[in-house]
Amino acid sequence: MAVLEPQLEYPFFVLGKGWSSCDPHRTAETYGLECQELKVGDVCISLSRRTDEEVKQLDQTVTLAEASELKDQEAAKAAVREELSKNMSASDGRSSEPPNRYHPYAKKIRKVSES
User: Compositional bias (Basic residues) spans (predicted)?
Assistant: First the structure.
């Protein structure tokens, strides 16, 4: 919450109402802005300066087609993740294929040289 001491005609943008001031008639004369009367409990929107870094992050335009394509890609990735998750939870972690015959602990195949 902020405490301000503006002139009576100073306009504020109020959520759900639009422009409002304590004296809408003077606001119209001074600023040429038609507005409603500001009342106790109105929620005003305050604008603040953004840093260059914040502006760069917001300075991206995406077309509706691009946004739709990105949404489809994310949905496809989510489906793959879900399928992998199902497959991984069904497995107990053990492999169903026989061990490799060249496994270092496979004594039957390993040749032991006697020197």
Answer: 104-115
Helix (H) or strand (E) segment spanning residue 79: helix 64-90
Query: Residue 100 contacts by C-beta under 8 Å, 6 or more apart in sequence?
Result: 106
Instruction: Provide Rg for the chain, Cα atoms.
Output: 34
- In angstroms, the CA 105 to CA 110 distance is 8
Global pTM value: 0.40
How many angstroms separate the CA atoms of 49 and 46, rounded? 10
Domain boundaries, the chain: 12-45
pLDDT in tens, 74-101: 999 999 888 887 776 665 555 555 555 5
